[in-house]
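Team,

Forwarding the record for the chain on the shared tracking sheet. I've put the sequence and predicted structure together so nobody has to dig through attachments.
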Amino acid sequence: MKPRLLYVSPFCENPATSGASQRSMALVEALAHDYTVTLLTYRPGDADSLSIWCQERTIDLAWFSRAAGYGRRLGLIGRVLAHQPPGFSTHDHAGIVADIDQLWQSTGPFDCLFFATQLMGQALLYGRWPAYHILDLYDVYTTIAKEKHRQVSPIRPYHWLYRFEFLRIRKYERRIFNRAHCIITTSEAERLFVASQVSEKPVVTIPNGIRIPDERSQGLKKQVITVGSHHYGPNFEGASWFYQEVWPLVRDQVPDGRWVVI
C-alpha cells in the first residue's frame, strides 16, 4: 500500500500560467507515482480543468476554504505593525491550518505533508501533525529581502523600512526552516544558504525545468517562450538580464528570432 501524502500548494493551474504553478504541477504528478496524493490548493479560474487533470492521475483534490489576499496593500505604518512579514500575510495561516486539520480528520491521517513554498510552510508554526514535513522553497525570501534594501540608498526612508522587513523575514523564515524535516531548494547556491541556517536535517536541490515534447512544431524553431509572473521582482530582474545580456547574442545568430514573454 502506498504511503499517503498531502501536497499543500498555492500555485496549481491546468494549464500552468507561471513558473511556480509549472513546478507544483510537475512535482505533484511525479509524487503520485509513489504516493497516494491529496492536493490542497486554491480554486483556480478553470477549476474543472484542474479537477479533470487530477482525476486522470488518481490525485484527490481539495480546495482551501479561504482565498488568498493577493493585491492587498498596506501603508507604511501597516507594514511596520503587520503581524506577519511582507508577502506572508497574503495567505491566512489560520485558515491553512484549519483546512489541513479538516482533511486530516476526514480523509487522513497522512504519512507526509509536502508544503510548496514557505507561504504554505508557515502553517508548521501554528499547527502540529504527526507526519514527515517536506518544505519546497521556490525562492529564499531572506536573500531577496536583503538585496532589496541594499538597492535603495540609506538616505531614503524606504531603505530603513526594507532593512526592518529583511530582519523580520530572516527570523520568520528561519523558524519555518526549523519546523521542516527536509527542505528542497531550486539551486546549489540556495541549498548552501539554507543549510547554513538549519542544523542536522537534509537540504537537497531539485532544479526547475520543463518536459520537452517528443515532437515539436517546425514553426517554433526560431521562437523562445518564457513563462512567469513578471510583477514578481526576481522574475522581472531575470527577464531584464536575459534581454540585456543574452538576447542580443541570440539575435546576432538568428536575426529573425522572436522572444515571447507569457
